[in-house]
Amino acid sequence: MPTSKETEVLWSDIASRILINVVSHPIEYAKVLIQVGYEPIPPKPTVTLFGKPALKLPNAFTYIKYIKRIDGFTGCYRGLVPKLCSYTVSTIAYDKTLEYIQSNTNAVQNNDNEDEEDESVRRKKCMYEIIRDVISRAVAIVMSHPLEVVSLRMMAQFVGRETKYSGVFSSILEIYKENGILGYYAGLIPRLIGSAAVIVLAGISTYAINTYIIQEPAMKTYTASTMKRHTHIICTILHIIFKNYPLVFYGRKFNIFTDIVRNHRLVAGLPPHMPIYKNWMHCWSHLSSHNQLKRGSSLLWRYYTGPQMLLNGKLIPIMGDNFYQPSL
């Protein structure tokens, strides 16, 4: 059973993270719209750092100004409530699952003196911790994913100005009427894969640092604690270094646009804004062919990579109804 101090720390972490989510939500909102390929502001001619001509797309802050101009200040927080609920459910589910696994397994015994452990024992402990964290995170994602779907559908409504997803409970009922139970878990597989990849990479990195770089036992404990408490920062770094950003991107995208949820009839998820994808692999293949796997990974320096033409010495985008989606 968790102590009162552990419970207090848990809710303190939840409260601090909720505050961060509230402050950063407009940026997250803009990022979601960028990820689904909605570009209402035309690109402008510019040059890259290396002097190469390019077409610059608006950064996230310009995008936020556009949202505010259309929907006002409160419009920048569309989808925030289910997002906060999703994070709270995810955090509690992760903590409880981790606690259950630790209290019901004796697979690995902690040893305070790690210097006395041989390489095989340390490797076994690392594998145990990775598997434990992967299971706990998977349970957290499965439990919170329906609320994530609600949040993303609310935000995607900006494209077509729909209002069918408004409240949390009414949106849950709407999804069930349209798609059944499966509608709550659109995009789950790529999200689970991306999460597992991050945990494995973080675990291996911790093991490598503690084995080959840090020698002091106290510092090794601090390394593991830091990696665990600042996973969201480490995840971002690992996404950039190991190029697994697309997996997280697809987890978001498929919440709205796979064949499981294509009956939702949101403008953002239908042609000409978005093709109808058969499954997440079809989506991956299509976006890869158009060099869009990392769409939304950069929020400050964004360049248009669609069809272009040179007119009077200037690059001009060949724009259809959507910058990012040429016809299939």
UniProtKB/TrEMBL annotation:
User: Which residues, if any, are the signal sequence?
Assistant: none
InterPro entries in UniProt:
MCP_dom_sf (IPR023395), MCP_transmembrane (IPR018108)
Q: Which segments carry the Solcar repeats?
A: 7-104, 124-212
Decide whether keyword Cytoplasm is in the record: no
Q: Name one GO cellular component term.
A: mitochondrial outer membrane
Please give, as recorded in its UniProt entry, the membrane topology of this protein: Multi-pass membrane protein
Spell out the subcellular localization from the entry.
Mitochondrion outer membrane
What are the record keywords, sorted?
A: Membrane, Mitochondrion, Mitochondrion outer membrane, Repeat, Transmembrane, Transmembrane helix, Transport
Would the keyword Metal-binding be found if you checked this record's keyword annotation?
no
Q: What is its main location?
A: mitochondrion
State the source organism's domain of life: Eukaryota
Q: Which PANTHER family match?
A: LD43650P, MITOCHONDRIAL CARRIER HOMOLOG
State the family it belongs to. Answer: Belongs to the mitochondrial carrier (TC 2.A.29) family.
- The name this protein goes by in its record: Mitochondrial carrier-like protein
